[in-house]
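Quick start: what a row looks like.
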Amino acid sequence: MNNILASIALISEFYDLNNINENLFYNFKIPPSRGDISKVRLNNKVIYLTDESYNSNPLSLKFAIENFDKEYQSNKYLILGDMLELGKFSKKLHKKMSKIINKTSIKKVYVIGRDIKETFYAIDRKKRGRILRDKNEIYHLIKNDLNNNDHLMIKASNSTGLNSLALNIKKGKINVV
């Protein structure tokens, strides 16, 4: 919503907003893996998945975490993958994300990847879930550790492969191999 409002503010400088069709925003759908929210039924429970798996960088991760934290009151969990293409500043920028997480009401943070471990080790111990080694551990976590009506956000750079995992979860395909 903030992005839409910022865009409207910018457009209003160059275009008369009175000429915009009011139906423009009613049919807007968030593109897949860019913050879309899915209600996922698994066995006898429902979880709410916020899929932010298309891209991750320090600014988008900060924004996604803060929005996720504001949005829901019940148990909130994060699965974070690496932010890629940060060069020699990667570890430092990953570690910096812990300060944002520590200010939230997020219950547990799980990580998968190399540099995201810097985030994990710097967050408060009570918020640490665990370091995940592969997609099967993620599926196991969702099936066995999350409860009915819990909220989960997955955030990572596209090249980590977590976007295909999130898509499978949305389709209800979370079979542990």
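That is the whole record. The beta strands are 36-42, 45-52, 76-81, 108-112, 128-131, 150-155. The longest strand covers residues 45-52.
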